[in-house]
Amino acid sequence: EMWLDTSGKRLMQWPIKEINNLRTRHDSLNNRQLNGGSNFEIFGITAAQADVEVTFDLPVLDDNLQIPNFEHLDDAVLFNRDITNECVYGPFGLLAVATDDLSEQTAIFFKVIRRGNGYSVMMGSDEKKSSLRDNVHKFTHGTFLDIDPRHEKISLRCLEEEM
């Protein structure tokens, strides 16, 4: 399904509800706290297809003036998963289509930064490690989300299929 958000400026998309009929197994992991720099592996997903939903509930964000304000941050820096010094939180997210040793992975990640009088959430996809082959185009993409992380949880649904 595709629609414009309430501002009429962004195109939104979500899998059609009939995709839920393809789910054959449901695992639920609730209230997991992750430490910075840690990975949490979900075991038992061996199928060629996976439908993963994850919601991040961040600790309280306040108007801490010690956090740098990045009103004019270059997109190349912001959407780079490896640069973290501008983040209030992040990067955090999923490593999709990852090998056991993580030598190949596609990162779908979020960063929370302070901008202006509030906070902004950006979502990115980093394909730099998506393949060990050299002749494959590997891009980093990103966009800002219209959510306020002080009042809303950050959610992601990822549909994966191995080729």
TrEMBL record:
It comes from the Eukaryota. Coiled coil: none annotated. SUPFAM superfamilies: Concanavalin A-like lectins/glucanases. InterPro entries: ConA-like_dom_sf (IPR013320), Fructan_Metab_Enzymes (IPR050551). This is Beta-fructofuranosidase, insoluble isoenzyme CWINV6. It comes from Noccaea caerulescens. The lineage of its organism: Eukaryota, Viridiplantae, Streptophyta, Embryophyta, Tracheophyta.
